[in-house]
Amino acid sequence: MQAHYGIGGVQKLHAWRKLLDDNQLQAEIDQVKRVNDFFNVYIRFEEDSVHWKKNDYWATPLETLGSGAGDCEDYTIAKYMSLLKLGIPTARLRLIYVKAQIGGPSSHVFQAHMVLGYYPQPNAIPVILDSLITNIETADKRTDLHPVFSFNSDGLWVGGQAQPQIDPTARLSRWRDVLMRMKQEGF
User: Fold this and answer.
1) Which residues 6+ apart lie within 8 Å of 23 measured at CB?
2) 15: closest CA among 92, 91, 82, 72?
3) Tens digit of pLDDT for each residue in 59-105?
4) Could you tell me the CATH number of the domain that includes residue 159?
5) Which of 67, 70, 76 is nearest to 56 (CA)?
6) Structural domain of residue 24, as residue ranges?
7) Which of 84, 42, 117, 69 is nearest to 187 (CA)?
8) Within its chain, how far is the Cα of 98 from the centroid?
């Protein structure tokens, strides 16, 4: 971390490890809130084209922490991996690709966006962790978000329906790539 990102990256790594250590025994919803707050405070939003000099790049949590910036996918991946590290089961978490309505309820402007959904119960309305809005809210209160599909390490969902024959790593090359890089980093 120090070789790539200097002392600032090391400090963020230590803060992240402290977050994980300090929250091991907390209730899941408290873990969700603290992880969301941590990344929304420590990481600044920056488009891939500026930050990584690439059109679309999904960073590992260590890359996001070390560089101190990322876009919506980077926040979502970092939050997802952090909650897995805290022991929240994969089945309760989904990375959700949405069309976000920009400019209010009467706007016709939509932008591709990614958020993390936490499902406290299997069929519950998920709580949404977002890089652009600091408070977590249930999906039914986020009328600005229109889900397209969701996935996690175990599956892919389209229109809320599981796609059992589809392996998310086979269909989502960026997801496969970031998982491979995370494995190389020790995840």
Assistant:
1) 30, 31, 34, 35, 86
2) 82
3) 999 999 999 999 999 999 999 999 999 999 999 999 999 999 988 88
4) 3.10.620.30
5) 70
6) 2-88
7) 84
8) 13
